[in-house]
UniProtKB/TrEMBL annotation, chains A, B:
This is Aminotransferase class I/II-fold pyridoxal phosphate-dependent enzyme. It comes from Hufsiella arboris. The keyword Repeat does not apply. GO terms for biological process: amino acid metabolic process. Belongs to the class-I pyridoxal-phosphate-dependent aminotransferase family. Gene3D superfamilies: Aspartate Aminotransferase, domain 1, Type I PLP-dependent aspartate aminotransferase-like (Major domain). It comes from the Bacteria. One of its GO terms (molecular function) is pyridoxal phosphate binding. Pfam families: Aminotran_1_2. CDD domains: AAT_like.
Length: 408, 408
């Protein structure tokens, strides 16, 4: 039998999806499972976008240009220039989801063995994308105690080698929800200029900033045009994860020209998705206001409930729709699996993503879990009751953490 | 300024799309351009598929499972089992276009530096996909004189090293239109078993076989279950290139399990595309009969017209909707560019793909051009008149070839 690649062997399984068989089994046994594991929002897609799909009037479902249709890129330019990105359609390559934007950016900028520095915990699939291109991820620990703020620049400096080609951030952050400040971005700017590095800015959650905090992008920084590559998607912005429509944006012409060759190899992004994406840019601002109000309330419920649970600590993040919380447990992977396999309360349980999958440093995040607040408020409350009971029952509960919490 | 990757520098530009700026310029100058360069059929997408798009009734455009929805994979199973593939939904991973099926298969089976043997000329983007994963393509020349039949197995044997992991074929072939026979596939089977190699079978053009010739897949061969990976797409089958919907199929469980990890990293194929793809399986057989009738007539027009032109030789292929023809020219790249930049006849010209882009051996295919018969018959005829005039006028015309043709 022919052997698969060592890449294929070592490719990490998704920490978000790997517990799915246990959840399926729990459901077969009649348990209700609250899905806080995955970033699939329950928010409705804007009607304007769905209507655009229903109104297609072409006869041939044809390829579009590899970089995306000009009409979609023009419309996107409108959207981004309202944010002050000051771009033109030539700065955009439309991709099959944000995922493809990330892989194309990595391929364009990093060779096999090259290194990208990423503050951890980070979006787990960065590991997978890096594995595809034999790129090395160099993680820098950020800490739950300060809400996962940007680690000191001196920590980045320590990791920079001849092989370092880029820094990657996700802002607001998945999985921590942390929203980077202008000062933090300015520090990264100086670092990237000093060491001539690309700055990849994954902005999938741009629209989700709470408490009147303002989103800032490296695109807003002067003098960084040749360094910044924005990686974006409509998935979360319009609750349209199934559209598989993203883009990469850069003012670096050499990067665009090279990225276009990768885009040409896979021919085209989806045509219907681009039609819908074009319409989506006209989504009324009231949609986002309502959605952000809803997410703010959910975040408040989740963070308050979590911090009330004995032994649990959860920072209050400024954006996205995730939190990473510390639980009084021995092993987040074991705990999350146990929740599905062994535990139930009123025939209900909660599915969460062990934070270990979001760290690259072995052993890090072992007592942390990512929760996505993508369920309605009532379900979130029920899920938190369930979680509290589970933490009391879980055989791997760590007393030290419990005591620490009690002493607060 | 940060430097792009050497991969990004060396990534080949699409030979099909790289002349586009010249075509755009020709159109600006008011010329009519007959596009025989690209495999974008003008055939209408089945109504059943378009109606499925218009009838979507979901509220949240959500992720689907990474391997594709069960309902789509079940429906696909129906389609493939009618062909005698004898598969179940677990053998399928749905992808964003056939392109993603190819990249996932390569990543799953080949590491950086590993080799895949491909008869050339081959689909140009295989070079790009290989470049993405630092995989080495080892080409084997097939020859226009015998219609680009499978080269002798002894030629494959000569290329096999420790690094050889797979053989890749495209059947019916893009760019040559050659349809592999059962005997040829059997020879490949023996070779793959002897050397324990994967056999990648790109079957994008399966539905397009002419003159009552039967399509045969390596899936029909016994004893090859662990070796065969079928790479497929709905793009050509249903004239739905813009759907970006493909799949990989294999009975090798280790391959499926590993491929699923790559699929999980990019989260999901498109949801609307899968809904449309599910409907498409019920496309009435009359659709395919009409389409094949149309393509047969077009092929006959194209092949007959080409062979009537002084100095031109074109085999009569059994499938797909391409031909590779030999022209009495010094350099196909120069000629195709010249056609757009310098030539016009009645204010018309023809865009074709130089065959050089479909060869990996330097210098091969220099007097060959790929033509796609994706235009209606009248346009094809006009394009051939245009081409004949162009070959008479082209300053790089080679007299030796002309003489050879005259002596036939």
């Amino acid at each position: 039998m022919p052997k698969i690649s060592s890449k294929g062997e070592h490719m990490p399984a998704s920490p978000i999806r790997k517990l799915t068989p246990y959840a399926d089994q729990a459901k077969l046994e009649g348990k209700k499972v609250y899905h806080l594991n995955i970033g699939q929002p329950d928010i409705e897609t804007p009607e304007i976008m769905l209507n655009a799909i229903k109104s297609i009037d072409f006869k041939v479902w044809a390829y579009t240009p590899s970089e995306g249709t000009l009409s979609y890129r023009k419309k996107l330019t409108e959207y981004y220039n309202k944010l002050g990105y000051n771009i033109s359609p030539e700065n955009i390559i439309v991709t099959n989801g944000g995922s493809e934007a990330i892989t194309v950016a990595l391929q364009t900028c990093l060779d096999s063995g090259d290194e990208v520095i990423i503050p951890e915990p980070f979006y787990a699939n960065y590991n997978g994308f890096a594995c595809m291109g034999d790129v090395i991820v160099k993680p820098i620990l950020s800490h739950i105690e300060n809400g996962f703020a940007l680690p000191p620049i001196s920590e980045f400096e320590k990791l920079i080698t001849e092989k370092t080609k880029a820094i990657m951030i996700c802002n607001p952050n998945n999985p921590t929800g942390y929203l980077y400040s202008n000062d933090e971005l300015s520090e990264l700017k100086d670092l990237c200029i000093k060491h001539d590095l690309f700055l990849f800015s994954d902005e999938a959650y741009r629209e989700f900033c709470y408490d009147n905090r303002e989103f800032r992008s490296p695109m807003h920084l002067e003098g960084l045009d040749e360094h910044v590559i924005v990686l974006d998607t409509v998935s979360k912005r319009y609750s349209a994860c199934g559209a598989r429509l993203g883009c990469m944006i850069t003012k670096n012409k050499e990067v665009i020209n090279s990225a276009l060759k990768f885009a040409q190899a896979r021919l085209s992004p989806g045509m219907v998705a681009q039609i819908a994406g074009t319409a989506a840019v006209d989504t009324p601002s009231s949609y986002f206001e309502e959605v952000n109000q809803e997410y703010t309330e959910r975040r408040n419920i989740l963070v308050n409930s979590l911090n009330k649970i004995d032994g649990v600590f959860c920072p209050n993040p400024g954006g996205a729709f995730y939190v990473v919380a510390r639980f009084p447990i021995d092993d987040a992977d074991k705990f999350c699996q146990w929740m599905l396999e062994k535990f139930s309360y009123n025939n209900q349980t909660v599915m969460m993503a062990p934070a270990t999958g979001f760290y690259s440093t072995p052993g890090a995040g072992k007592d942390e879990v990512r929760l996505a607040y993508v369920l309605n408020k009532q379900d979130l409350k029920e899920a938190m009751v369930c979680l509290e009971k589970a933490l009391l029952e879980y055989p791997g509960r760590t007393e030290s953490k419990k005591l620490k919490a009690e002493s607060l």
